[in-house]
Automatic annotation (TrEMBL):
Gene Ontology CC annotations of this record: extracellular exosome; motile cilium
Domain of life: Eukaryota
Coiled-coil positions: 750-781
Keyword Coiled coil attached: yes
Keywords annotated in UniProt: Coiled coil, Repeat, TPR repeat
One of the GO BP terms on file: cilium movement
Region (Disordered): 817-845
Official protein name in the record: C2 domain-containing protein
Organism per entry: Candidula unifasciata
Domain C2 residue range list: 1-130
Pfam name, any one: TPR_8
Length: 1082
């Protein structure tokens, strides 16, 4: 659109009407009855004064005064005033005119400010009841705390919204907040010449223009002048506001944790400097906020500038308090201590990020540094001072805009170095820094600043949009079939409830009169009526009747709604009574129908519960995987799903199994089933994303990874997996953001965990101290009683063991963990007290490092190994290797060994385990894995030695079942049947299964313990009656015990289940030939 066309569409100026309606609870200097008026001001302009009104306590003072502010749509400064300046309403009390005075005098009762921001956001009216804040020695300032304060009702209105919906959607609000400058130069003193401090920076105004902005009137404060915890913001342009009216209502400086900041001083090494600077050194405080409405052209200018340069300049200056100027030289000399802070706004280019806040380093101003980092020629501080209406240096200017000077020479320069938030510049390169500016660097000064946008520059897909996209890819299905609430269904439900209640009532009646009902003789009507009355009384007094009525209520409501179609209240009582009578008759008839069916049924036998639940089936499948019997494992996984097709965990486990054996299409199908049942299942979202990456569906994979982080925003695993995915697709910015968020969450988790462990240790130490005091008190009381029995007291009597304990205290203190030594309840006297039990003086030892949460990559590795995602595991281990300091740790080598075992590279797995043993030769998990590697390589003697060594440790390995199975199988192979029986029984004690009981049965059979063998094989057969080896050994046991028919039946089942040709089948045939039975062919 051309400029002429745009000019035709500019709206003419419109008034903003400010109406002061009424005031309440006003108190004058001489009582509650007073005469007052209000004065309305905007900036340095007075909009008007109301007429004088009488104010009495019983009724409010009605002012009904209105004033106008003309808003010009073609003037950006007019919009800037609306955003920066409040409307100041001051209430004055008119004092009684003295005889000698010619004019009436007035004093301020109170003052308030109203923010016009809602008008810019699209509102057409602002109605507020504001509390009047008093000034020094005003009546409002002396109101008692428990009495109501003065209030005033104000309404601000416009005829139409200042911006239409399109302008609001296309524009954005930029809010810049400046807090305090900490650790200023040492030469800044509280005493002496007063100075004013300012912060200047450019703000985009249009597509090619910027507005130089000044935050003025910063005050140098000493450490003794403490700030409140919330740090309420002040109006940058307060106008005539004084006292508490200069504070913006409900607006406070950011108080995010240091780890959530984006500035330069957020590392652990900077915390001590920040703490000292903020508590013990002078500071310059602004605590101001300025808002800027960026229309589409200005917003594009802002985004393009950040994209090209990343850094935004913020300048700091010191100015003397003066209202006059004496020429240009004095003006230039007044810009002392010219500092520069470079704010890295590249985070605003991340999707969904709308804030950048933190502590940013201040250095001396340098044209060279400014041009290098921001591609700008010259600072903006002089123009900002000139154009600021709040600055003590006021100049007339023809224009309030400054043309941007853009340097387009270095378009092809690399941006990767600029992406890093590292503004710690080399001082040697700042050739133009003055001696005053150098003091910023020497003092390590920093300033608290926040840039905040109402909407992010790059929108992030919302959780709802991601869930909708996931639903499009994997349509969710209901967990249960849709209910049909037709009339017949409502009646059937009523019948079912009546049947249930009838059974309950009948059981209670039988329990109550069990003894009397034993007599099968005829019952008289009087006795039956007496029982009925007694039973009804029992139901009413015990609350059972009420419970029955509540149980039946829902089905009755359904009949009313579905059959009689009554869903509203009755207006006529007669109609209500008619309906209730009809309903009662119908319900009684249907009750008889239901009871006739119930009483006709015979007692049904109870359905036995399945012997194997879902957890046992999962364990059996895992056991089959250990033995590389994948067909049997798949059978168990399918059985779990068949029992409950809506169980997400069953589908997930089957999917990871298919991922392990390389059946990617089947795995994808399983994870789709998981997400169709539960679209928010974290592990399914992540693993389905992994499957999509394997299938080269990166766009779909990103959707699922991003959905996981949106739904589970506090999951370290979700953010780490998103970062690993971005690494896979070479999205460095996305990976950096994801890893930063994962590290932040992990640091919080580690901090909470450490604090919990410390509190637990302090609690244990406190309990121990109390026990020691109790024992010491009892010992002392016994000594006193003994001395009394002997006829006197011996003050010098000391236990000779006490000296030895006191001598051992220094060595004892060295053994105590730092967390215990820091406990306030522990003192040297406590540690030196004797204990009543040998060795009780030893401290409670807790190794925090062994149980602390691991790094984000190792946490991801542990989970990825469980789901058998090999490619992502390799990527995560690579990142862990780059981030760890001091070389790989034990858990890294163990994870590498597990990865190589999954890949089938047992030699590399053994090499990594040897490295792990060099770090910790006492680690039981390492020895267990070494045994598995040797077992899979065929080195059974070596595997046996490793397994035996693992079991010799005090603590068990993290996973012992596979160890038991393989060690016992080795013992069977070596004909060590007694040892095999012992190990198999240990496995049965923890996790009984068909395999473990079969092992016990086999060992007992070889030992000649036929009765025990039969019992063990029967247990195995109950858990899995489709194992041919179990039937084979049962046949052998029956042959040994001369049971012909049972031996033949067991043999038939073994052959039917395809018992493999081998030594076992040959042994059966030999025994059959020996005993002459057991084979149908005989």
């Amino acid at each position: 659109m051309t400029d002429e066309a745009e000019a035709l569409h500019i709206r003419p100026p419109e008034p903003i009407v400010v109406s002061v309606l009424r005031a309440r609870n006003l108190r004058g200097s001489k009582g509650d009855n007073l005469q007052c008026f209000v004065k309305v001001e905007f900036g340095d302009r007075t909009l008007g004064e109301s007429s004088k009104q009488e104010c009495i306590p019983e009724s409010p003072a009605e002012f009904n005064f209105s004033a106008n502010i003309m808003f010009s749509f073609d003037d950006p400064i007019s919009l800037d005033e609306i955003l920066q300046k409040p409307v100041v309403v001051t209430v004055y009390e008119v004092l009684t005119k003295e005889k000698k005075s010619k004019e009436e005098k007035s004093v301020i009762l109170g003052q308030c400010c109203i923010d016009l921001l809602p008008l810019v956001q699209g509102s057409v009216e602002i109605s507020r009841s504001l509390q009047l804040s008093g000034v020094t020695e005003s009546p409002a300032d002396t109101v008692p705390f428990n009495e109501p304060k003065g209030e005033i009702d104000i309404r601000v209105a416009v005829s139409e919204p200042l911006f239409d919906e399109f302008q609001i959607s296309e524009g954005n609000m930029l809010t810049i907040s400046v807090g305090s400058l900490y650790s200023p130069p040492e030469s800044w003193m509280i005493t002496g010449v007063n100075h004013s401090y300012g912060v200047a920076l450019p703000v985009p105004l249009t597509a090619d223009k910027e507005l130089p902005v000044l935050f003025a009137n910063g005050k140098l404060k000493s450490p003794q002048e403490k700030e409140g915890p919330k740090k309420q913001k002040r109006w940058a342009v307060p106008g005539t506001a004084i006292g508490n009216a200069v504070f913006m209502p409900d607006r406070f400086m950011f108080s995010d944790p240091v780890e959530n900041e984006d500035g330069d001083f957020k590392g652990k090494d900077d915390l001590e400097h920040r703490k000292f600077s903020e508590q013990e050194r002078n500071r310059v405080t602004w605590n101001m906020e300025r808002r800027f409405y960026l229309q589409r052209s200005a917003l594009k200018n802002f985004q393009d500038t950040i994209t090209k340069n990343y850094y935004w300049p913020v300048e700091v200056i010191r100015l003397p308090h003066t209202s006059t100027t004496k020429g240009k030289k004095e003006e230039e000399s007044s810009l002392a201590f010219h500092g520069l802070a470079l704010i890295n706004l590249s985070s605003l280019l991340y999707p969904g990020v709308s804030r950048v806040k933190g502590a940013f380093r201040v250095i001396g101003f340098s044209e060279t540094v400014l041009a290098e980092k921001t591609k700008r020629q010259g600072g903006v501080v002089e123009d900002a001072v000139k154009f600021s209406s709040t600055s003590p240096h006021k100049y007339s200017a023809a224009s309030t805009h400054r043309k941007l000077t853009k340097n387009m020479d270095n378009k092809d320069s690399k941006k990767t170095n600029q992406l890093r938030s590292d503004t710690a510049l080399d001082v040697d390169t700042m050739t133009a820094i003055t001696a005053e500016g150098q003091q910023y660097t020497d003092a390590k000064s920093y300033i608290m600043i926040e840039f905040c946008l109402d909407k992010p520059l790059i929108p992030k897909r919302t959780t709802e949009a991601l869930i909708k996209r996931v639903a499009e890819l994997i349509p969710p299905r209901p967990l249960y079939p849709k209910r049909t609430d037709r009339a017949q269904k409502a009646v059937e439900d009523y019948h079912a409830q009546v049947a249930i209640i009838a059974e309950i009532v009948l059981d209670n009646f039988r329990d109550m009169f069990a003894d009397e009902l034993k007599d099968s003789g005829p019952q008289s009507p009087d006795v039956m009526e007496q029982r009925r009355q007694q039973f009804v009384y029992e139901l009413n007094t015990t609350g059972k009747y009420f419970a029955i009525k509540e149980q039946l209520k829902h089905s009755v409501v359904k009949i009313v709604r579905e059959k009689y179609l009554r869903t509203t209240n009755f207006e006529d009582k007669g109609e209500l009574q008619t309906f209730l009578s009809e309903l009662y008759v119908y319900l009684v008839d249907q009750m008889h129908v239901s009871l006739s069916k119930v009483l006709a049924y015979e007692d049904q036998p109870a359905v036995p519960k399945p012997l194997k639940d879902s957890n046992q089936l999962k364990h059996f499948a895992f056991e089959a995987e250990i033995n590389h019997n994948f067909e049997l494992a798949e059978t168990y996984y399918k059985e779990r799903i068949a029992r409950n097709k809506a169980d997400t965990d069953s589908w997930f486990d089957y999917g990871t199994f298919n991922l392990y054996i390389g059946n990617i299409p089947k795995a994808e199908e399983c994870f789709k089933e998981c997400l169709s049942t539960n679209p928010k299942h974290l592990q399914s979202l992540l693993v389905y994303g992994i499957v999509c990456v394997i299938s080269d569906k990166n766009e779909i994979a990103e959707t699922f990874f991003e959905t996981a982080t949106c739904i589970h925003c506090k999951s370290v695993l979700a953010w780490t997996m998103l970062g690993l995915f971005y690494d896979a697709v070479s999205n460095e910015i996305g990976a950096e953001m994801a890893y930063a968020e994962a590290n932040r969450l992990n640091d919080k988790k580690i901090l909470a965990f450490t604090q919990a462990m410390r509190e637990k240790e302090e609690e244990l130490q406190e309990q121990k101290r109390k026990e020691q005091e109790k024992i010491a008190g009892e010992s002392k009381r016994e000594e006193i009683l003994m001395a009394v029995d002997e006829g006197g007291l011996s003050v010098q009597a000391v236990d000779p063991k006490l000296g030895n304990i006191q001598k051992s205290t220094p060595a004892l203190a060295k053994q105590i963990s730092p967390a215990i030594r820091q406990a306030p309840s522990v003192s040297p006297s406590t540690l030196s007290r004797p204990s009543g039990k040998p060795g009780s003086e030893e401290p409670i030892q807790h190794d925090l490092t062994s149980v602390l949460p691991s790094s984000i990559f190792m946490e991801a590795v542990d989970w990825l190994l469980q789901v058998k995602a090999i490619s992502f595991t390799e990527r995560a281990l690579g990142h862990e290797l780059l981030t760890i300091t001091g070389g790989p740790k034990l858990d890294f080598y163990i994870a590498m060994a597990k990865l190589y075992i999954l890949k089938g590279d047992y030699s590399e797995a053994e090499n990594n385990l040897n490295e792990a043993l060099q770090l910790d030769i006492k680690n039981q998990d390492t020895w267990a894995l070494m045994g598995h590697v040797k077992f899979l390589k065929g080195d059974k003697p070596g595997a046996r030695d490793c397994y035996e060594r693992t079991l010799s440790f005090v603590n068990d390995a993290s996973e012992t079942h596979s160890l038991y199975l393989r060690l016992a199988s080795i013992y069977l192979h070596e004909n060590k049947y007694q040892e095999a029986k012992k190990i198999y029984l240990m496995a049965c004690k923890k996790n009984p299964s068909c395999v473990t009981w079969l092992g016990v049965g086999t060992a007992c059979y070889r030992l000649g313990e036929l009765s025990e063998a039969e019992d063990a094989l029967s247990e195995a057969n109950m858990l899995n009656n489709l194992d041919p080896e179990v039937w084979a050994y049962l046949s052998l046991v029956c042959l040994k015990t001369n049971r012909c028919h049972q031996a033949e039946q067991a043999y038939k089942y073994a052959i039917k289940l395809k018992l493999e040709e081998g030594p076992l089948l040959a042994e059966i045939h030999g025994e059959q030939a020996r005993y002459g039975f057991g084979n149908p062919s005989f």
